From TrEMBL:
Residues 60-393 form the Enolpyruvate transferase domain. Phosphoenolpyruvate binds at residues 20, 68, 96, 144, 316, 360, 384. Its main location: cytoplasm. This is 3-phosphoshikimate 1-carboxyvinyltransferase.
């Protein structure tokens, strides 16, 4: 699909998609509760629609497609509810590790077998009888394993003590899980590296899902690149549960100021710093937006804390390196966790971007089409988290054909 922006002036109130991370947690809580839970503004993201469909399904095989949270949260949920299931997904999902979660569930009494490769989906969940109230789990691969355990913890007969080992990455996602649990009456303690959740029931309540801060990042990139930007993103809150609100801080270096209003956040252009630096350990989903943007602005940048990018929808470090190279700039990758963008700049006009079946590759590069016409491969990948992305961009004056 070709995309360009004829005027480089963007004036819009964006009706952003709602958060798939909040939605998928809230849906597991709703399914685990005996009392009524009312959820509003559930995300239209495919990952959330898949979660809803599978929670309602009576089939034995649960195919999550490419949804990481759906795979991890449903693995723990099916186990805790003694729901005999085969968990599977796309070929890429079958290459995304799940062994740390399966080992944790096995250590408290689950009987789970791998059907292809040890440590990876597909896997079969058999019977579960809780034999222990304590799990030890490393926190440096994916926080989703920890959130998955916590969401079911109150419903386990013995409750759960989760002992976190080593570094904990993506920590705001764990805090989001606990905050949402707390909204439905759950008490917990987190002291040093131990999170304790006693057996208890989720209480009735209502919750409105916030818009998606990860999706907001593409609008910040548009604001930074446009000549004129009058952009307001609707339904974002200053006291968000989402760690990707870190985009507000990050974009101060990249020339965009945020002002919170009652119904959303207003973006204004300001001066930018000479060099960009940020640690993405706790907000990995923002990395592609920012690497692409810094390259497009011709700035020098250093991004660290990127270790989880290699095991997401694609190897995102390799994907960024390949695509930015096509635009004429060699980014430097240091080990598995750091990218250095050299000062210079890129050429956009007439170039084409491969998206590697990764929604964030498409969404992170599309804003660069303010600077020239781009071709974006497999535009439908955005369905995973932000199905109305292209429609929203068209409303902001982008032309797609
Ligand atoms: O819990 C969540 O909702 C998520 C956690 C993060 O994954 P990791 O914990 O694997 O970094 C993030 O990348 C993903 O998009 C959503
Ligand atoms: C990594 C992501 O999602 P998940 O891990 O849930 O597939 C993402 O949305 O960028």
């Amino acid at each position: 699909m070709k995309i360009y922006h004829p005027s480089k002036s963007v004036k819009i109130d964006v009706p952003l998609v709602s958060s798939k991370s909040e939605s998928n947690r809230a849906l597991i809580i709703q399914a685990s509760a005996t009392e009524e839970i009312e959820l509003s503004n559930i995300s239209m993201a495919r990952d959330t629609q898949t979660m809803m469909r599978l929670l309602d399904s009576s089939e034995e095989t649960l195919d999550v497609l490419d949804a990481g949270t759906t795979m991890r949260f449903l693995t723990a949920y099916a186990t805790a509810n003694n729901r005999k299931s085969i968990m599977t997904g796309t070929p890429r999902m079958q290459d995304r590790p799940i062994g740390i979660l399966v080992d944790a569930l096995r250590s408290i009494g689950a009987n789970i077998e791998y059907l292809k490769k040890d440590g990876y989906p597909p896997h079969q969940i058999n019977n579960f009888e809780q034999t222990s109230d304590t799990v030890n789990i490393r926190g440096d691969v994916s926080s989703q394993y920890i959130s998955a355990l916590l969401l079911v913890a109150p419903t386990l007969p013995k409750g759960l003590k989760v002992i976190l080992e080593g570094e904990v990455n993506s920590k705001p996602y764990i805090l989001m899980t606990l905050s949402l649990m707390e909204s439905f009456g759950i008490k917990y303690t987190w002291v040093e590296n131990e999170i304790i959740v006693a057996p208890q029931e989720y209480k009735s309540g209502a919750y409105t899902i916030e818009s998606d801060w990860s999706g907001a990042s593409y609008w910040y990139s548009i604001a930074a690149l446009a000549d004129v930007a009058e952009i307001k993103i609707l339904n974002l809150r200053e006291n968000s549960l989402q760690g990707d609100k870190a985009i507000v801080e990050m974009m101060k270096q990249l020339g965009v100021e945020s002002t919170f209003e009652a119904d959303g956040v207003r973006l204004t252009k300001t001066a930018r710093a000479d060099k960009f630096f940020f640690d993405f350990t706790h907000c990995p989903d923002l990395a592609q937006t920012i690497v692409a943007l810094v390259a497009a602005l011709g700035m020098e940048g250093r991004m660290i804390g990127l270790q989880s990018l290699r095991i997401k929808e694609t190897d995102r470090i390799a994907a960024l390196q390949n695509e930015i190279k096509k635009l004429g700039l060699e980014i430097e990758v240091v080990g598995d966790e750091e990218i250095i963008v050299p000062k210079g700049g890129i050429t956009i006009e007439g170039q084409s971007i491969n998206t590697y079946e990764d929604h964030r590759m498409a969404m992170a590069f599309a804003p660069l089409s303010i600077l020239g016409q781009l071709e974006i491969d497999e535009p439908e990948v955005v369905e995973k988290s932000y199905p109305s992305y292209w429609k929203d961009l068209e409303a902001a004056g982008f032309v797609t054909e």
